[in-house]
Design goal:
Layout lengths: L6 E4 L15 E3 H4 L5 H10 L2 E4 L4 H6 L3
Parallel strand pairs: 1-2, 1-3
Length: about 70
């Protein structure tokens, strides 16, 4: 089975119970620290080369300022 090398960081606002999110490609914020602030999530994703999956629109705004 083909597994892309890119990994994703799933924000706490997306349900972990989705079968789609339960593979090695997906790391859940709730498993790291459910109380992480958005800035900490952003920094963690940058330092670990992860794509953030979230429903929060404020992460989009960060892309224009970073």
């Amino acid at each position: 089975m083909y597994m892309p090398s890119q990994k994703f960081l799933v924000d706490v606002n997306l349900p972990k119970k989705f079968k789609f999110f339960n593979t090695e490609q997906f790391i859940h914020v709730v498993d790291i620290n459910p109380k992480m602030k958005d800035s900490e999530i952003w920094d963690y994703a940058l330092s670990n080369d992860l794509i953030i999956l979230t429903k929060d629109s404020d992460f989009y705004l960060r892309t224009s300022h970073e």
